[in-house]
Request: fold
Amino acid sequence: MIRHRRKLIYLLGFMGSGKSTVGTLLATALGWPLIDLDTVIEAGQGLSIREIFENSGEAFFRQIERAALAEASKAEPAVIALGGGTFAQPANVDLIQAAGGTTVWLDCPPEILRTRCEGLENRPLFRDVQAFTQLFAERLPYYRLADYRVSTEGRTPEEVVESILSLRFF
Ligand code: S3P
Reply:
């Protein structure tokens, strides 16, 4: 399907999939700004993601995440690195699809994601292996709605950026 796309790329995927790292490199390669949603949220609240979850809970986090997403989606051009849960909220999927950008899912097997997330302090939703596995399974159907899927397994962030650029959708 050919349709007009805004110069707006959303990177999505589970925590640990490399959205921020790939986003930084992709934005540099394109000469576009990077909007890292978690960073925007932390700056807006003056708190870390972990502190926001601890102080105010996940429902509040999802509210401010949605507001940050709506604001970020006005930008063009931009690479937007989403949080792991952003694209797993139906209202956010609608907002992103209506924004007219392109969605790219950084896909990675859960075993690899798990080893990357273990020991990281700023991931409040990484509690234990069982919860992680369940969350991953719940989110897959949403991630599969992305316009493009790029595998990150065994590949450097630079190689992932090359794959995205070779899709030539903009
Ligand atoms: C979350 C992932 C985090 C952050 C928050 C919630 C999630 O982002 O937005 O902790 O629901 O999976 P990363 O995917 O960048 O870790």
Notes: The beta strands are 8-12, 34-36, 78-81, 102-107, 148-151. The chain has seven helices and five strands.
